[in-house]
Amino acid sequence: MATKDIFEAVLACDVVGTPDKVKAELDAGTNAEAILKAGLIAAMDELGGRFSNGDVFIPEMIRAAKAMQAGVEVLKPFLTQGLFQSAGTVVIGTVKGDLHDIGKNLVKMMLEGAGFKVIDLGVDVSAERFAASAKENSADIVAMSALLTTTTPTMGQAVAAIKKQGLKAKTIVGGSPVTQSFADKIQADGYAEDAKGAVELVRRLMK
Amino acid sequence: MIQTNLAEKRAPYFRMLGDDQIHELLRATFGVMEQVGFKVLHPGAREMLQKAGAAVKGESVRVPEYIVRGCLATAPQGWTIYNRQGERTLEVEGRKSYYGTSTASPNTKDALTGEIHPTTVADLALAAKVADALEHIDWVMPMGSCQDVPAKAADLHEFCATVTHTAKPIVFLTYSARGAELVYQMAAEVAGGLELLQEKPFLVLYPESISPLTFPAEVIDRMFVAADLNLPQMMGPSIQPGATGPVTMAGAVVQGMAESLMGVVLAQLRRPGCPVGAGCNFAIFDMSLGLLSIGAAEMSLGLAAQAELAQNLGLPTWGLAGATDAKVVDAQAGAESAFSILAQGLAGLNLIHDVGYMDNAMVCSVEQLLLGNEVIAATKRFLRGLEINSQTVARDVIARVGPGGNFIEDEHTFTHFRNELWRPKLFTRLHYSAWVREGAKDTAQRIREEIRRLVETHQTQALPDKTLAALDAIKTKGEKELA
Lengths: 207, 483
Known about the structure:
The complex is a heterodimer of chains A (207) and B (483).
Chain A: H1 3-11, H2 17-27, H3 32-52, H4 58-75, E1 89-94, H5 102-113, E2 117-120, H6 127-136, E3 141-145, H7 153-164, E4 170-174, H8 180-185, E5 190-191, H9 195-206
Parallel strand pairs in A: 1-2, 1-3, 3-4, 4-5
Chain B: E1 9-10, H1 19-36, E2 38-40, H2 43-52, E3 55-57, E4 60-62, H3 65-74, E5 78-82, E6 88-93, E7 98-101, E8 107-109, E9 116-118, H4 121-133, H5 154-165, E10 170-172, H6 177-191, H7 194-199, E11 203-205, E12 214-215, H8 217-228, E13 233-234, E14 238-239, H9 249-270, E15 276-277, E16 281-282, E17 284-285, E18 292-293, H10 297-313, E19 318-320, H11 331-347, E20 351-355, E21 357-358, E22 363-365, H12 366-384, E23 386-387, H13 390-393, H14 395-401, H15 411-420, H16 432-437, H17 443-457, H18 465-482
């Protein structure tokens, strides 16, 4: 038994086996931080590389992330306080008038897999609700999605509302009718053309 | 001579599903409608469904089979669609296939320069004009989603630009129910009055619900506009297997069929007997990129299977072909276009749309449309099949020419060659040195030249000035109203 087995369990997307192996390893006396770093985080990094290469795919990334999170839950009581905190808080939603959410859901899942805390406001979300949630949750990022060309105005309104309230949250936008130049026009902090890009963008903005 | 029981003509076709499989998939479809149900976000529609006997709880509506069957009994099994001139053009029924353009893209590949830019009204006007000229494009959709006009009224501009520049039947979408009403007002002007439009409809509404199993209020409002006018509509739920529907195609087909039939139910309960088709789309969700793909082989598989279910129930069907994820008109564009066009022609789908779609459905392209037009021509020749009679079997000709003879100068060849052999207009068969002498142009270049020629020479029958003025008035007034 070693952290290597935990590493392999995450790679295998083993949602049940990973927390079991983590518990066994803790019982065997291995340090919690070591398990986290060499077992769980290292596995997600490895998978991230394979995903970029096109050898591992979205459903596998999502499942592996679930396995990792299950392992983290077992470790939490044993970790030095503050060592494992989320990478940041993201408020996400599909804008008002739009009910399409598969892209938004994909971004949410990938952000969670990357260690972010995500507050999902769902669909048909007004500018006011984005701003209110950003304030309530001290969000680092507000992420807005749309499919319909007629609904993108909400994005500009939300950016303005967040700026007006002086919130720390940065705003990012995405979806088929959204472009970099639209994002620039409404003074959003970023635009991503796909889900993977969204995660990278959030990481960049968090630095 | 009397010969019994010899068919002279049979077209090649394929059937994917056995009767046992159709039965299995339809049982699952009715099961989904009755046990899983739908999210129906339109209170009036929920009330209508409840009165009809559906199980309504909050926004959830579950529809028992007998209600669906009742609606199938009233839905017409076919429609006649006319052109702008009131001439009978399409019989949307059975296994009659007609190819149409793409639509709704935020971007356009410029018809003349090939550059990709945000879609403009001018792009749509040009696309409609070229589509009007293409022999094998039977009907059109406004070729893009205009970015240079107010978004909420863009549908008015899109329909106006299209109906002005082509006389072919139009399948259209709108961004609101009021938009649909205004487009129908425009269409009535063109037809010479609402009654004439209803008698000889030249347009078909295209509403898309949201998968999985969700019907927004605005979509239903649009459907009700068409139903109330007794004008045809073709359902367009769009499933991405593995994202918004089961990843296994059989499951995706079942869910798609359920969503499509729910559209039929909504339309029939609103107005029994109104024309509504059991359309469905599958777009493959790329598991690496998380992006939608419109060129995959599985797409045609799902469409063909869903259409066989719809054909079994006697409803008009929908397809998606001539589309590519390629960003330029290259080998991928050709391969994906040809594959889908042939597969879906063989499957007998009725209204096959999206010829001209590129780049993950982000771009409409007149270049891709021309490529598709050529492929459709070849496909039509193929689907004509073989004619078998004493003339074509030509035993006497074979005997006459004999071993070692030649057929080029024979009278039989002279009589039949034009009808028998397809001549490509775009694809080259030149001797290599001739091809070099003519500029060594690849297909994309020759397509661009042909577009230029069509734009310069083709004349769409113009609408009367009175009609154009009326359309403009509706558009201007509508734009203010929708703002």
